[in-house]
Design goal:
Elements lengths: L1 E5 L15 E6 L3 E2 L3 E3 L4 E6 L13 H10 L3 E6 L9 E7 L2 E12 L4 E10 L4 E12 L4 E9 L3 E12 L4 E8 L4 E10 L5 E10 L4 E10 L5 E10 L4 E10 L7 E10 L5 E10 L5 E9 L3 H9 L4 H17 L5 H11 L6
Parallel strand pairs: 3-8, 6-8, 7-9, 8-10, 9-11, 10-12, 11-13, 12-14, 13-15, 14-16, 15-17, 16-18, 17-19, 18-20, 19-21
Antiparallel strand pairs: 1-2, 4-7, 5-6
Length: 353
């Protein structure tokens, strides 16, 4: 058993706020987990003993990445063919059963002019418990793009640690869509190095945290290239005794002239007993940049509640409808029937996808 520090802010705030980082006590030794993979013909796939990408920063940080490397799981290595747009998604399905102490790792290389979508679906039995982890490293080359979609639908007794780190070259784009629909305590970390001229990042997060569950997020966009852009959106629902911590950092490094970064969070609080913490950060060492951040946190407007109640809806039904709508707004960006069905089933919806 070990302890480690994860999801550390790049620039610490006041210690008394207890938002700078998260300490995980007595973290267990993990073993390699099972995974089902569907690989398009334009993608080369093979197991590696170690990551080929070096000196990469990740959202959860050095302690977590070191833990993964120490565990030595086979790295699911994927390299897209040169200059192609892969029509079918690269898919990793990981299902956890019973008592879990599992770690998986993947590395995705997208060469110049290539484009690929990678879908990772994480699910579990209702009674699954323990700890599960995923490490994903990537490199997006010039004029290439990678869309990474991750959906988490886990039991209320399973902790999940999901870490991402990578770099985008000139005009490269990394798009991240994450949907969190369960888990005892879920940790998300993502660090994107926008080093290439006009490279870009798009991030969309949707989450539903209920019961006694928790969510801890650390997103970092590091702008080092000129005219780079990032757009980070988080849209979530807290109910019962759910707890959520969101850290979003846009780091304008000296030399990134013309860079633009935006981060927005919208949180619906359904009960008085929830705990919400949000810390948007903009670090600026370059003058010629534009940074924007904002947050909307609270209950539904009284005018909207009055209107819907006058149409015969109860307050509980209104909140349920609006909560599902927030998740579906992000799910609509996922153009994969299997993944959308997983989200709909988890939300208890019988809609067609």
């Amino acid at each position: 058993m070990n302890s480690m520090i994860v999801n550390t802010l790049p620039s610490p705030t006041w210690n008394w706020l207890h938002m700078n980082e998260q300490t995980i006590e007595d973290f267990p030794v993990l073993e390699e987990g099972a995974v089902e993979i569907e690989v398009p013909e334009e993608v080369e796939a093979e197991p590696h003993e170690a990551f080929t990408i070096e000196n990469v920063k990740t959202g959860m940080g050095e302690d977590f990445l070191a833990m993964v490397k120490k565990t030595k799981p086979d790295i699911d290595f994927f390299r897209v063919a040169d200059g192609v747009k892969v029509e079918e998604p690269l898919r990793l399905d990981i299902a956890y059963e019973s008592q879990v102490n599992a770690v998986n790792a993947a590395e995705i290389i997208v060469p110049a002019g290539s484009h690929v979508v990678c879908i990772m679906n994480f699910s579990s039995d209702e009674k699954a418990s323990g700890n599960a982890a995923m490490e994903t490293l990537y490199h997006v080359a010039e004029n290439a793009s990678l869309t990474l979609i991750q959906v988490t639908a886990l039991s209320d007794e399973l902790n999940f640690f999901n870490d991402i780190g990578g770099e985008c070259d000139e005009r490269g784009n990394f798009s991240l869509i994450q949907v969190v629909l369960g888990g005892k305590k879920t940790y998300l970390g993502s660090h994107t190095a926008l080093s290439g001229y006009k490279s870009s990042l798009n991030t969309d997060l949707a989450y539903l945290v209920k019961g006694n569950s928790g969510l801890d997020v650390n997103y970092i966009a590091s702008h080092t290239g000129r005219k780079t852009t990032c757009d980070i959106h988080a849209n979530g629902v807290l109910r019962d005794h759910g707890q959520k911590m969101f850290r979003g950092t846009i780091d304008f490094v000296k030399g990134c002239a013309g860079a633009v970064g935006t981060e927005v969070e919208d949180v619906l609080l359904m009960d008085e007993t929830v705990s919400n913490q949000t810390i948007p950060v903009i670090l600026c060492a370059e003058e010629d940049v534009e940074g924007n951040h904002g947050a909307t946190i609270g209950k539904l407007p009284e005018e909207l509640m009055f209107y819907l109640k006058s149409r015969g809806m109860s307050e509980e039904a209104i909140y349920e409808m609006m909560a599902i709508a927030r998740i579906e707004a992000v799910a609509d960006k996922i153009h994969d029937e299997k993944t959308r069905s997983l989200i709909a089933d988890r939300l208890g919806r019988a809609e067609e996808v």
